[in-house]
């Protein structure tokens, strides 16, 4: 961060401040002799072309499944081709327009319709002169009737091919809008990275209208390279030269418009390249309308309408400035392409009026995507690092990490449990942060009075001993004058990329005065891409007795989300034999590694001395809504012993905390009632003695 | 300085631009680029230059031009007459003098200035290369001190007696706060800004020069609020004020509310609501029981409310926190413990339930004054969880003698009391290369109010003094060796008035006399503990030897029923041993001098 800043400042100072009496020297400046030559040489070919010549973008024409159906419409040419009279043309236009209005199901007396008809009429009047006023008026009513007739089933097809050009910044949702328009997945979209990388022509039908949509790669925000934008816009220009679009949709995200919004440079560039006339047929599309408006100066969220109006004005102003025409007024369409967008009863999508939960849902959805992406990137970078390590075979040692000197940072004081004493000995646990936190205290809540009770020590450490070999130690211990308690697991494991892994370990645990030692070894290999087989042996020493065991296991992966595992084992010792086996199926959620949702069903059986116990186990982790995580586990065995555990954690529904109040009230009520009959109890206890 | 690389392909305009930068950088009088085509279709490029040289100077001055407007440079007109030129130059000189006078002085210390003067004296003339060296020297000092935004931008007043070094030091003009959601989008924060603002060190406020150390300090302080999952402190150039720095603090807030439940049917329910009203107030509660719906005696609960900034967030001179909590504990009493030569005595459990309200006034990070009120009910129970009134010991015959000291003041096994409590801690210990050095004094006081069972009136007081003496004062700094430290420790505790036996001071234990178990040496009305420890650095850690002694000062007989004698304890003890520190864990071998036997111990945390 700081290096960047320094670079920045030196660049800035170098360019602006130093121009007066400059003094900009880079650290790596050539310190040659007074007349020394710099060793710089260069090849004499100087390319005049700023860009590589392969910048002409191949336009990919996507053929939609509807294409055939639409073209059939062309076989019924309308008679308006034969008309030469401009008046007739206008009339034909009226027909088409009215048919369109019918088809779209817009009431004929809405503003837009009325306005268009009025303009057509006006055009008619100008062309035909005052005398024909009555005729045109009549014509409209007649046209309406004719249009309605034509729209009736069996009427001639409406031939009104529409070409729509989509322009906008990357991530605005151009491609997503296409999918929404056709209500079908025509193009790929990406939530966080540019999904469209070339100009595409998509053809389809909307309510019987043939629509050709030209999808373009997203433009970069202005503060990034304008070069790329220029390139994109030039290729767009080439693409639409032969067949200019009827409508241009300019996309802008509602949630990106704010007071600091400044896309003037970008709009200007568009105007310069595509010509200012393009703006006259442009419709502004405000996407991501489901996001709730920000808070106004009074702290309350702005009215949805007021907010969108404000956004529109901001964008419009910039467009006007870019075209240098203050009269320009583009129509605005609000859109949201998110699958979570609410739909009304007919299944049509509805925009909210600033609903907060919709925003939070969206945020949550995006968070999932983001986490997934991060996870994937993490894996990729890890793989990359591994590959690099293999290549370089650690010859080139990266000493960057070592150079970071351990900063002396003090932790804030440790939380210690509440007590009624005046003592608060946090100073005993102050320390300087070291690179790895190896030890942690283990609290004994029922320790000594007037003492905190950090009596045990928890330790955990893992280390890569060699390439592919790692060792780990974990456990707990307590060593006092009289008692000693150790529970530890140490293991060494080896794994390679081909899916072969082996591990050996030593577990120790104290039981009363004895030490239980377990030595175990495991091996596992992935014999097929979906199957992994493993086996293991173990020896347990308990006092002077020895138990030996062996197990065999197999795991099958079905698809990405289902895993099946089975194992069987046998253990002998002291002349006794026990057999066990189990089957387990795990179904992971859609967003598994990010959102830990999974269901596990397991069946186990254990037989010992001719007695067999079969148990079933169900464990499920899932999320309810945004902020509520649940984990339910249930088990039951053939002896009718079972248990149900519900765990939940939430950040939204803190009401669960009320159980605390419930339990406490119960507890105190009990105490009060206990006190009243305390006398009896005491006499009882004496009688027992 | 030449950015052209051998083997690169350049256009003519790029070459011209390169030449222009070289000429305009002010270091050279004259620069020539000579291009020679070679036989292998490449060209050789020769840069020849004449370095700028100015007349010798004897003085050196450093000024901060950070927030000053740029000196306006009137174009030097070639057509000017000689007189006009003179006038122009004079005017410019005057302007510059004014600028130098108006500028803020630099924070550059005198000795660095002296070093620069020394560099200048060695050379006869001021050359561009020397200026470059001076620049590097000055900048190096700044960056080593953590003033990472400082930059030498210009040298002025050349050709005179005094060289003026103009530095943009990085003056902070503004501190900006930004809250982000999980995806990094800007959001309205819940936390009130003054809460965060309080934590900023003085050096990070507007008017000061940005220092990376202060930035780290701020990060640490804000982090200790425990309100944010991610904190970034970044310097950013001020767009509105040339040369200024805006300190940008980006914060991601933690979810303020959360609840967790684990029900099976017994289990734990916990909830917390942090950062209430954005003022860092918090309520935390939890209940654990084996049956939450019908809780038995095993229920443990905790409710805590913390209200910081009692005197208002804006009052920075005072930092008082109000805290109230209602909870219960269940612990073993170290008073009813058998001595070493006796069979184990049946344990006595001390159940406490009650509430505590106190105010903590922080003077420094570690020195605090806490005072408040405690109301509690104490129940003493035996192994079978029934209330017991007297301690018991195993008889040689195998039976239990029930005539031990009374467990409570009231004699019924249940005590209730209210008392005032205070704790003054003066702690100026600090870490020197990772080892604690300094002094710590703690005075604790419990004052009974005569409210409760048998109207208990008492005064319990404790004084703890610990001195960590740095014996060899090694150089401070990361990676430097640990100092050898001598620790002297004394603890006196005494009680006047009514004393229930569970509150008698127990001798022995990891924080009393090491090498003994809790209460192994006895329990008295007045006790004195003395300890000394010598810590010697070995490799990256401390190896230490220590001696400790504790005595009841003959006060055991003043405790009701004399539990020390009843459980056959000696009432005093000495131990010595040696150990090694492994991070926060101590491994030590301690010899119990009373018995003469040694044992290995492992403990978490410091003894002192």
From TrEMBL, chain A:
Recorded superkingdom: Eukaryota
Organism per entry: Eleusine coracana subsp. coracana
The protein's required cofactors: Mg(2+)
Domain AIG1-type G per the UniProt entry, residue ranges: 159-389
Keyword RNA-binding carried by entry: no
Organism classification: Eukaryota, Viridiplantae, Streptophyta, Embryophyta, Tracheophyta
Compartment list: Plastid, Chloroplast outer membrane
GO BP: any one term: protein targeting to chloroplast
Keyword Zinc-finger: no
Mode of membrane association: Single-pass membrane protein
Gene (name only): ga03761
InterPro entries per the UniProt record, alphabetical: G_AIG1 (IPR006703), GIMA/IAN/Toc (IPR045058), P-loop_NTPase (IPR027417), TOC159_MAD (IPR024283)
Family: Belongs to the TRAFAC class TrmE-Era-EngA-EngB-Septin-like GTPase superfamily. AIG1/Toc34/Toc159-like paraseptin GTPase family. TOC159 subfamily.
GO molecular function: GTP binding; hydrolase activity; metal ion binding
The protein's name in its UniProt record: AIG1-type G domain-containing protein
Signal peptide: none
Key words of the record: Chloroplast, GTP-binding, Hydrolase, Magnesium, Membrane, Metal-binding, Nucleotide-binding, Plastid, Plastid outer membrane, Protein transport, Transmembrane, Transmembrane helix, Transport
Gene Ontology cellular component list: chloroplast outer membrane
Automatic annotation (TrEMBL), chain B:
One GO cellular component, as annotated: chloroplast outer membrane
Signal sequence residues: none
The keyword Transmembrane helix is assigned to this record: no
Domain Toc75-like POTRA: 1-51, 173-253
Listed InterPro entries: Bac_surfAg_D15 (IPR000184), D15-like (IPR039910), POTRA1_3_Toc75 (IPR057354), POTRA2_Toc75 (IPR057355)
One Gene Ontology term from the biological process aspect of the record: protein import into chloroplast stroma
Compartments where located: Plastid, Chloroplast outer membrane
Gene3D superfamilies: membrane protein fhac, membrane protein fhac: a member of the omp85/tpsb transporter family
Domain called Toc75-like second POTRA: residue spans: 60-171
Primary location class: plastid
Keywords: Chloroplast, Membrane, Plastid, Plastid outer membrane, Protein transport, Transit peptide, Transmembrane, Transmembrane beta strand, Transport
Protein's membrane topology: Multi-pass membrane protein
Protein name (database record): Bacterial surface antigen (D15) domain-containing protein
């Amino acid at each position: 961060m700081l290096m960047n800043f320094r670079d920045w400042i030196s660049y800035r100072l170098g360019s602006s401040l130093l121009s007066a009496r400059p003094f900009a020297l880079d650290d790596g400046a050539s310190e040659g002799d007074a007349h020394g030559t710099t060793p710089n040489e260069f090849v004499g070919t100087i390319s005049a072309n700023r860009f590589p010549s392969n910048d002409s973008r191949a336009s990919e024409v996507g053929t939609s499944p509807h294409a055939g159906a639409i073209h059939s419409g062309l076989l019924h040419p309308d008679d308006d081709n034969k008309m030469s009279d401009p008046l007739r043309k206008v009339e034909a236009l009226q027909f088409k327009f009215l048919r369109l209005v019918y088809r779209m199901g817009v009431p004929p007396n809405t503003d837009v319709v009325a306005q268009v008809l009025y303009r057509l009429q006006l055009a008619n009047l100008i062309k035909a002169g005052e005398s024909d006023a009555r005729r045109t008026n009549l014509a409209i009513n007649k046209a309406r009737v004719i249009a309605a007739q034509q729209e009736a089933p069996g009427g001639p097809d409406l031939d009104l091919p529409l070409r729509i050009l989509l322009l906008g910044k990357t991530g605005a949702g151009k491609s997503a809008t296409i999918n929404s328009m056709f209500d079908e997945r025509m193009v790929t979209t990406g939530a966080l990275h540019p999904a469209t990388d070339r100009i595409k022509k998509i053809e389809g039908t909307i309510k019987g209208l043939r629509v050709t949509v030209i999808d373009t790669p997203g433009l970069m925000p202005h503060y990034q390279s304008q070069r790329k934008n220029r390139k994109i816009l030039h290729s767009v220009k080439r693409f639409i030269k032969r067949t200019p679009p009827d409508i241009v949709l300019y996309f802008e995200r509602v949630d990106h418009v704010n007071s600091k919004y400044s896309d003037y440079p970008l709009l200007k560039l568009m105007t310069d390249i595509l010509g200012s006339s393009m703006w006259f047929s442009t419709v502004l599309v405000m996407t991501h309308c489901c996001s709730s408006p920000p808070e106004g100066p009074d702290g309350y969220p702005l009215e949805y309408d007021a907010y969108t109006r404000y956004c529109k004005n901001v964008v419009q102003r910039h467009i006007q400035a870019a075209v240098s025409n203050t009269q320009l007024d583009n129509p605005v369409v609000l859109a949201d392409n998110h699958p979570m967008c609410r739909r009304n009863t007919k299944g049509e999508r509805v925009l909210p009026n600033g609903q907060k939960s919709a925003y939070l849902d969206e945020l949550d959805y995006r968070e999932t995507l983001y986490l997934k992406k991060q996870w994937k990137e993490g894996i990729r970078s890890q793989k990359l690092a591994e590959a690099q390590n293999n290549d370089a075979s650690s010859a080139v040692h990266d000493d960057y990490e070592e150079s970071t000197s351990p900063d002396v940072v003090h932790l804030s004081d440790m939380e210690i449990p509440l007590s009624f004493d005046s003592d608060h000995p946090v100073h005993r646990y102050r320390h300087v942060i070291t690179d790895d936190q190896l030890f942690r205290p283990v609290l004994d809540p029922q320790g000594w009075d007037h003492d905190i009770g950090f009596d045990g020590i928890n330790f955990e450490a893992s280390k890569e001993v060699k390439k592919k070999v790692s060792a780990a130690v974990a456990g707990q211990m307590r060593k006092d004058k009289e008692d000693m308690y150790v529970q530890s697991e140490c293991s060494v494991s080896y794994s390679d990329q081909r899916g072969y892994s082996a591990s050996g370990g030593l577990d120790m645990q104290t039981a009363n005065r004895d030490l239980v030692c377990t030595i175990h070894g495991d091996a596992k290999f992935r014999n097929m891409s979906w199957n992994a087989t493993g086996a293991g042996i173990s020896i347990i020493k308990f006092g002077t007795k020895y138990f030996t065991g062996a197990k065999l296991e197999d795991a099958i992966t079905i698809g990405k989300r289902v895993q099946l595992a089975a194992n069987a084992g046998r253990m002998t010792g002291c002349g006794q034999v026990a057999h066990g086996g189990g089957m387990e199926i795990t179904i992971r959620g859609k967003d598994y590694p990010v959102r830990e949702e999974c269901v596990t069903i397991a069946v186990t059986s254990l037989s010992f001395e001719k007695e067999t116990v079969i148990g079933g186990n169900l464990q499920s982790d899932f999320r309810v809504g945004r902020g509520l995580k649940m984990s339910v586990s249930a088990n039951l065995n053939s002896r009718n012993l079972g248990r149900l555990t519900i765990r939940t954690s939430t950040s939204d529904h803190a009401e669960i905390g009320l159980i605390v109040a419930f339990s406490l009230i119960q507890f105190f009520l009990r105490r009060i009632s206990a006190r009243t009959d305390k006398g009896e109890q005491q006499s009882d206890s004496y009688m027992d003695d | 300085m030449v950015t052209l690389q051998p083997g690169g392909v350049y256009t003519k305009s790029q070459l011209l631009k390169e030449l222009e930068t070289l000429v305009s950088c002010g270091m050279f009088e004259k620069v020539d680029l000579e291009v020679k085509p070679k036989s292998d279709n490449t060209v050789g490029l020769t840069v020849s230059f004449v370095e700028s040289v100015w007349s010798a100077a004897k003085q050196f001055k450093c000024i901060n031009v950070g927030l000053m407007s740029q000196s306006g440079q009137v174009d030097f007109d070639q057509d000017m007459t000689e007189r006009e030129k003179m006038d122009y130059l004079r005017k410019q000189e005057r302007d510059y003098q004014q600028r130098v006078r108006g500028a803020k002085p630099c924070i550059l210390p005198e000795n660095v200035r002296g070093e620069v003067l020394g560099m200048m004296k060695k050379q006869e003339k001021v050359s561009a290369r020397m200026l470059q060296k001076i620049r590097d020297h000055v900048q190096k000092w700044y960056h080593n001190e953590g003033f990472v935004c400082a930059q030498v931008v210009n040298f002025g007043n050349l050709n005179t007696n005094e060289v003026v070094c103009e530095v943009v030091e990085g003056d902070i003009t503004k501190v900006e706060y930004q809250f982000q959601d999980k995806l990094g989008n800007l959001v309205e924060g819940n936390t009130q800004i003054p809460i965060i603002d309080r934590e900023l060190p003085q050096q990070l406020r507007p008017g000061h020069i940005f220092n990376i150390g202060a930035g780290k300090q701020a990060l640490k302080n804000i982090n200790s609020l425990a309100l944010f999952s991610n904190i970034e402190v970044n310097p950013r150039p001020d767009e509105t004020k040339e040369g200024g720095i805006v300190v940008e603090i980006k914060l991601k807030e933690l979810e303020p509310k959360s609840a967790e439940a684990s029900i099976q049917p017994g289990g734990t329910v916990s909830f917390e609501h942090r950062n209430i009203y954005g003022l860092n107030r918090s309520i935390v509660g939890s209940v654990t029981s084996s049956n939450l719906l019908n809780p038995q005696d095993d229920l443990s609960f905790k409710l805590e409310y913390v209200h910081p900034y009692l005197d208002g967030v804006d009052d920075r001179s005072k930092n008082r926190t109000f805290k109230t909590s209602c909870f219960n504990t269940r612990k073993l009493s170290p008073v009813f413990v058998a001595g070493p030569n006796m069979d184990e005595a049946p344990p006595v459990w001390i159940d406490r339930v009650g509430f505590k309200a106190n105010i903590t006034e922080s003077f420094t990070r570690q020195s605090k004054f806490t005072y408040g009120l405690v109301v509690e009910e104490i129940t003493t129970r035996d192994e079978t969880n029934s209330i017991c009134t007297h301690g018991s010991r195993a008889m040689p015959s195998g039976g239990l003698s029930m005539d031990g000291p009374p467990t409570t003041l009231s004699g019924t096994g249940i005590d209730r009391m209210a008392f005032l409590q205070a704790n003054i801690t003066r702690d100026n210990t600090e870490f020197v290369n990772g080892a604690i050095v300094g002094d710590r004094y703690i005075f604790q006081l419990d004052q009974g109010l005569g409210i409760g069972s048998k109207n208990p009136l008492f005064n319990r007081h404790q004084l703890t003094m610990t001195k960590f003496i740095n014996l060899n004062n090694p150089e401070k700094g990361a990676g430097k060796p640990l100092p050898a430290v001598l620790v002297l420790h004394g603890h006196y505790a005494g009680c006047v008035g009514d004393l229930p036996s569970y509150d008698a001071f127990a001798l022995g234990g990891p924080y009393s006399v090491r090498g003994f178990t809790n209460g192994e040496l006895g329990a008295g009305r007045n006790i004195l503990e003395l300890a000394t420890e010598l810590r010697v650095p070995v490799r990256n850690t401390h190896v230490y030897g220590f001696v400790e002694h504790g005595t009841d000062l003959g006060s055991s007989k003043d405790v009701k029923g004399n539990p020390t004698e009843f459980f056959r304890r000696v009432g005093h003890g000495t131990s010595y041993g040696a150990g090694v520190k492994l991070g926060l864990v101590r491994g030590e071998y301690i010899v119990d001098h009373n018995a003469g036997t040694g044992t290995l111990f492992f403990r978490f945390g410091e003894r002192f």
